[in-house]
Amino acid sequence: MNDFTEVTELKNELDQLRPLPSAAVKNLNEVLRVEWTYNSNAIEGNTLSLIETKVVLEDGLTIGGKRLKEHFEVINHSEAIDYIEEHVLKDKKLDERTLKNLHYLVLKNIDNENAGNYRNINVRISGSVHEPPNFLQVPQEMSNLLSWYEDNKGDLHPVELAALFHFKFVYIHPFSDGNGRTARLLMNLILMENGYPPAIVKAEHEQRLKYYETLELASVKQIYSPFIELITGCVRDSLNIYLKAVKP
Ligand SMILES: Nc1ncnc2c1ncn2[C@@H]1O[C@H](COP(=O)(O)OP(=O)(O)OP(=O)(O)O)[C@@H](O)[C@H]1O
Ligand SMILES: [Mg+2]
């Protein structure tokens, strides 16, 4: 069983300090946007550093010697965060359009043919023995996932809901590429909808390995708690960053 006491308490502590000072929140959101974009893209193989990511996003500069695609990945991911922020602000429903729109934003200008469209090929996940469902089953599987979400969103702890949604999404692997980035965006959309800060899975060796290992455990052995625990730790880290910045 997973333990959400600590994250729940930290969130309550944060809620008690609301309304948070707007200058601090603005600064934090900028910092987290760069970290989230850097880490999510680095997991996928983007070679821009944290500082290079910041320079592309905040100063609008290009990095000499880096591919155009890597720049698009940074800009696209930031636009996907804009989309999530608006989605949360306007209290919109998470449906099939939401996840296709997010995937479109992630892959536009990079793979326009597939951006926003479910795969029409069968895929394997490198490093994993899990075989995602046949592409013909993807629309049905995705509709089942969204029904599962509707049925459970009132009952599960938001961190468990977000982590399981991420897992179930990558298990289906609905797109030919960009599944990991889209899953991490959707997980954070769910967290943010529930008043939590985004969970940032770190690209550094140890956490990345844990991320793959715990997903494989969930896919192959149906053991979910290690993945949920990893994500809970990421949420705790983000909550601590917030608290540190806004506590008097
Ligand atoms: N054993 C596994 N079972 C289910 N999903 C997995 C497993 N191993 C990895 N994954 C997920 O698959 C993602 C990779 O899929 P894909 O290449 O489509 O996504 P990406 O966004 O291009 O890359 P990345 O996710 O590496 O950033 C990983 O990030 C992870 O979320
Ligand atoms: Mg990929």
Keywords:
66% helix, binds adenosine-5'-triphosphate, 248 residues, mainly alpha, 10 helices
Structure write-up:
With 248 residues, the protein is mainly alpha-helical. It has one domain (5-113, 135-246): Fido-like domain (Fic-like fold, Orthogonal Bundle). Helix content is 66%, strand content 0%. It is built from 10 helices and no strands. It has helices at 5-16, 22-44, 50-59, 68-89, 96-107, 138-152, 158-172, 179-193, 205-221, 225-246. Helix 4 packs antiparallel against helix 5 and helix 4 packs parallel to helix 8 (179-193). The radius of gyration is 18 Å and the shape is globular. The two termini are 35 Å apart. The protein binds adenosine-5'-triphosphate and magnesium ion. The site of magnesium ion (MG) has 2 residues, from loops. Adenosine-5'-triphosphate is lined by residues 43-44, 125, 128, 130, 170-171, 177-181, 183, 212, 215-216, 219.
Please provide a brief summary of the model.
The protein is mainly alpha-helical and 248 residues long.
